[in-house]
Design goal:
- The protein is α+β, with helices and mostly antiparallel strands.
- It has two domains: about 80 residues, Sulfite Reductase Hemoprotein,Domain 2 (Sulfite Reductase Hemoprotein, domain 2), CATH 3.90.480; about 140 residues, 2-Layer Sandwich (Sulfite Reductase Hemoprotein, domain 1).
- Helix content is about 35%, strand content about 20%.
- The chain is built from six helices and twelve strands.
- The strands form three sheets. Strands 2, 3, 4, 5 and 6 form a five-stranded antiparallel β-sheet that branches.
- Helix 3 links the parallel strand 8 and strand 9.
Length: about 240
């Protein structure tokens, strides 16, 4: 797995720093400031992927990376991996428009899948409503909340290119658990079917979105989960 550290035109290096979908604790934020001062960082830049790029001289790279790890931060993986997850502030505490908890889902997805090695970079985006502030339709794997613990999933989107593509709907009304199950299925299928260095969007375009559909009944939909929860509740009431 490669690290997102790149030499710049001015001879300095840019290091891409990952937090929890752009969320820092005050201790991390203050610590990052102190670390960058001690490592003579020239500039800090927020990115569209909710990461922070620090520009500094090569001799200070290792020292900064050590300080990042101590803060619970990391250097972004790059090249044939799952990249940092984009998630909006969509939850009941932060956004009035949120239909489901996009932020916690995005953080959980990143914690599990960040750095998974694949044929090509895979970008994941999670949005708390159909406004899609994190551009889920332009992600390899895009998730949009439709209600509490209910999500639609799109795959095969592609942004940051001269030929952007919107993803195609793969599954509707999945629970949080279902989103994890489906992502794992998509990543496994992509690993098995993609040509070397082929982007997921190109694999979907070549084979069709249905090639990534799991067998019917594989995952529990949100409605089925609610039915199970209701039956469990009734059973407990009967035992009382």
């Amino acid at each position: 797995m490669n690290k997102a550290i790149f030499k710049q035109s001015n001879g300095m290096y840019a290091i891409n720093i990952v937090s929890a979908c752009g969320v820092f604790t005050p201790k991390q934020f203050a610590g990052l400031g102190q670390a960058t001062l001690k490592c003579d960082v020239y500039r800090l830049k927020l990115t569209t992927r909710q990461t922070v790029v620090a520009v500094l001289n090569e001799e200070n790279l290792a020292k900064l990376e050590t300080r990042l790890l101590a803060l619970g931060l990391s250097v972004s993986p790059y090249g044939g991996t799952v990249r940092a997850v984009k998630a909006c502030a969509g939850n009941a505490a932060l956004c009035q428009r949120a239909l489901g908890d996009a932020l916690d889902l995005g953080i959980a997805l990143q914690e599990k899948y960040l750095g998974w090695e694949l044929n090509k970079d895979v970008k994941i985006a999670v949005a708390g409503c159909s406004r899609g502030c994190t551009d889920p339709l332009c992600a390899d794997f895009g998730v949009i909340a439709r209600s509490r613990d209910s999500f639609d999933v799109y795959i095969g989107g592609r942004g940051s290119t001269r030929k952007p593509l919107h993803g195609q709907l793969l599954a509707e009304n999945l629970s949080t658990v279902g989103v994890f199950q489906l992502l794992e299925h998509v990543l496994d299928t992509y690993s098995n079917l993609a040509h070397p260095k082929e982007r997921l969007a190109s694999t979907v375009a070549r084979l069709g979105v249905r090639a990534f559909a799991p067998p019917e009944g594989t995952f529990t939909s949100r409605n089925e989960q609610l039915d199970d929860e209701f039956l469990a509740f009734i059973s407990k009431e009967g035992e009382a």
